[in-house]
Write a structure and sequence with these properties.
Radius of gyration: 31 Å
Strand content: 5-15%
Order of helices and strands: HEEE
Strand order of the largest sheet: 2-1-3
Number of strands: 3
Number of helices: 1
Distance between the termini: 93 Å
Length: about 80
Amino acid sequence: MSQTTLSLEEQPGKPRAESPTGLFLQPWQKGVLLIVLLGILYLRSWRRRQARTRICSHCGKKNPPHQTNCQRCAAPLMRVE
């Protein structure tokens, strides 16, 4: 009986993985994308913490930063503290 030996050149190669979207990202590209997304999330949370209360110039009541008119007297809010 004769044994046949296969060298690396004769062995069949692995089939390539097919992507359903056709988009392949390298590992370093995935890392950069993750860093950018985390940076955006951090900036959003930082901006929310920077929101200041609004003080009514008419009655002096402190209002949340998202209000445009005073909760007590309904005057427009201009001043930010």
